[in-house]
Structures are given as structure tokens and as C-alpha cells.
């Protein structure tokens, strides 16, 4: 069993992999979602990340809340609330007048999330996107009240500019609660922004990091290697535009080589790299079947060698004449 890691100074201890709930009620129906959640816990996972906006982008899902609702039903039916940590988020637009991080809106939104999740507390409540129309202190004031009321246990930030994240951390020195985690985009393909701008802040402050897109929207699983592969999932078109290029194919080649040496899969290697990366507490990854999730949780026991990490990080497109 993987050793739990504390998320910042929150007192929340999590396995080195967080299950992403973006697919629940969307590409995974309720039965499939329950099977995925069961497999994740069986594989040693204990933290589930979702958001109130999941999956408002899908036709007929206006207003969001589908993922939280599915997780809430699973928690109730399985009696697992004390076994797992629930991370959710607030701030993305759900409809007219339902977005942002104003104190009043957060106080309303948390009640909706609690109802859908069928719980009376949220372990990690995250600002899904910074609200730059407000001072960084306003959401912290709302979170202070929710912490006092016992409705949330810790807070986190996602998609914040480094200057605003630092300002929020500085504000917390004056009696306001502190963001104990950052949820940025970070993976083997997308490294520069986090490593250059965010890593110095999180290392200096000691906050945890739970990156999303750990598998680059599925590209680093090796599932997408040619144009024809892009029809395999709803994400295919976006993957083709961003990742299916010389850099991406060089990374897949390096992942294949390291995976072969460890009798592992490219997805397991990509996640193991993240789990061992400086500043990272636990990457977030999602799956739509128990088999996929079992593959992901097995990455928690994969230990990469220094030579493996060097090979992965040095992957470059092959020069052509």
C-alpha cells in the first residue's frame, strides 16, 4: 500500500493518486461510475476530486452538478463517507448569476454541493478559477466562516496566476485561512508554466499540489498515436491539435521505452513520473472503467530510476533531413 502524503499542512493525508470525477455522469453513467469508484478504493485510493461545474459542458447537463450527484449516491449506497476524502470546487459559471468567488455566492454554492454530495462536510473546497474582479481576501473570508461552521476542512486554489496565489498566501498570514493546495495543469508534456512560475511558490510555502491533466487528456496513455486514433473519444479533436506532434510522439517513444523496462504501461509511467516530481503531492487521473482505474492505481507502486526520469525529461523530436 502506498504511503499517504499530507496535502500541504491541511491534516488531510492522501494516497499518491487522486481520482478525477469529471467523467462521472458524463462519459461514465451511474453504474460505470460506481464501478470506477469501487475499483479506486479497492486499489488503495482515498481522495476523489470533482467540481460543481462537472459536466455542464455536455448537452442536457446545463447547470452542472452531475458528478457531485453521482458521487453522493455512491457515498450513500456504499457507506464510504468516512473512508474517502472529497475534494470539490466552486467558481466556474453554472448559469446566469452563478459564478465567481464572492462571499455570498460561495456560501450559496457550498450548500448546493453538500446537498448533491449527500454529506455535511467537504474535505477540500477549492477556488476553481480565480475571480480577479475581487480582492484575494474575499473568498478567504467566506472560507473562514465555512471552516468555523465545519462545512469544509481545508481550502485549495486552482488556475491562479502566481502573483494572485502569492497574494492570497500573504493574506493568510493576517488571520485568514490559507490555501493548502494548488491544482495546476502539469504533466510530462506541459511542464514549463508550473515549473517556472508555481513550483518556487509551492516549495517556499509548503502547500500541496494535485495537478490535473496528469495524462494530458489521455494522450500520455499512448492511446492516440495517429490521426485515425482521434475518433476514439470525445476528447480526440483537442488532443490532436495540441499533442499529436513531434514533441508528443517523442514523449510516447520515451514512455514506451521506460514502460518496457518496468513491465508497465505508458500511463503508469507518466503518473509515476508526476508522483516523484518535486513539489507534487498526487496527480489527478480519471477512468471510465474498473480496468482503467486499476491500471492507474498500480502506478502508485512503480518506482522510477534516475535514468528513467532523465530519459523522459530529455525526450525531443527526431530531427529529419
Verbal overview:
The chain has 321 residues and is α/β, with parallel strands linked by helices. The protein has a domain of 173 residues: NADP-dependent oxidoreductase domain (TIM Barrel). The protein has eleven helices and ten strands. The strands form two sheets. An eight-stranded parallel sheet has the order 9-8-7-6-5-4-3-10, covered by helices on one side. The chain has a two-stranded antiparallel sheet with strand order 1-2. The termini are far apart. One of its GO terms (cellular component) is cytosol. Pfam families: Aldo_ket_red (PF00248). Keywords: Oxidoreductase. This is Alcohol dehydrogenase.
CATH H level, superfamily name of the domain at 11-183:
NADP-dependent oxidoreductase domain
Structural class: alpha/beta
Shape annotation? globular
- Which fold name fills CATH's third level, the topology of the domain at 11-183? TIM Barrel
Intertermini distance = 49 Å
Instruction: Give the strand content.
Output: 5-15%
Main beta sheet: strand number and arrangement?
A: 8 strands, parallel
CATH class membership of the domain at 11-183: Alpha Beta
Number of contiguous helices: 11
| Tally of DSSP β-strands | 10
Which sequence of strands runs across the widest sheet?
A: 9-8-7-6-5-4-3-10
How are the elements arranged and paired?
Layout: E1 5-6, E2 13-14, E3 18-20, H1 30-42, E4 47-49, H2 66-78, E5 85-90, H3 103-117, E6 122-127, H4 137-149, E7 152-158, H5 162-171, E8 179-183, H6 192-205, E9 208-209, H7 236-242, H8 246-262, H9 266-276, E10 284-285, H10 290-297, H11 306-313
Helix pairs in contact: 1-10, 2-3, 3-4, 5-6, 8-9, 8-11
Amino acid at each position: 500500500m502506498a504511503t499517504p502524503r499530507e496535502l500541504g499542512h491541511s491534516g488531510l493525508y492522501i494516497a499518491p493518486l487522486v481520482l478525477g470525477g469529471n467523467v462521472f455522469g458524463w462519459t461514465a453513467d451511474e453504474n460505470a461510475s460506481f464501478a470506477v469508484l469501487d475499483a479506486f478504493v479497492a486499489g488503495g485510493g482515498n481522495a476523489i476530486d470533482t467540481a460543481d461545474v462537472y459536466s455542464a459542458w455536455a448537452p442536457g447537463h446545463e447547470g452542472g452538478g452531475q458528478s457531485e450527484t453521482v458521487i453522493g449516491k455512491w457515498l450513500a449506497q456504499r457507506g464510504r463517507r468516512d473512508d474517502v476524502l472529497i475534494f470539490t470546487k466552486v467558481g466556474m459559471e453554472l448559469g446566469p448569476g452563478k459564478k465567481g468567488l464572492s462571499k455570498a455566492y460561495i456560501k450559496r454554492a457550498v450548500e448546493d454541493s453538500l446537498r448533491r454530495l449527500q454529506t455535511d462536510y467537504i474535505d477540500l473546497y477549492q477556488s476553481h478559477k480565480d475571480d480577479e474582479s475581487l480582492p484575494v481576501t474575499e473568498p478567504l473570508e467566506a472560507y473562514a466562516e465555512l471552516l468555523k461552521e465545519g462545512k469544509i476542512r481545508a481550502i485549495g486554489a486552482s488556475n491562479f496566476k502566481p502573483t494572485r496565489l502569492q497574494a492570497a498566501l500573504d493574506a493568510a498570514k493576517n488571520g485568514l485561512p490559507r490555501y493548502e493546495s494548488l491544482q495546476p495543469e502539469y504533466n510530462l508534456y506541459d511542464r514549463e508554466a508550473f515549473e517556472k512560475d508555481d513550483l518556487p511558490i509551492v516549495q517556499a510555502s509548503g502547500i500541496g499540489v494535485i495537478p490535473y491533466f496528469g495524462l494530458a487528456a489521455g494522450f500520455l496513455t499512448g492511446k492516440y498515436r495517429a490521426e485515425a486514433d482521434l475518433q476514439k473519444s470525445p476528447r480526440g479533436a483537442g488532443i490532436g491539435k495540441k499533442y499529436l506532434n513531434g514533441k508528443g510522439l517523442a514523449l510516447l517513444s520515451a514512455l514506451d521505452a521506460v514502460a518496457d523496462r518496468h513491465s508497465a504501461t505508458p500511463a503508469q509511467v507518466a503518473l509515476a513520473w508526476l508522483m516523484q516530481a518535486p513539489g507534487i503531492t498526487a496527480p489527478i487521473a480519471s477512468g471510465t472503467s474498473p480496468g482503467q482505474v486499476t491500471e492507474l492505481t498500480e502506478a502508485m507502486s512503480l518506482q522510477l530510476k534516475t535514468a528513467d526520469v532523465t530519459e523522459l525529461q530529455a525526450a525531443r523530436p527526431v530531427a529529419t533531413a
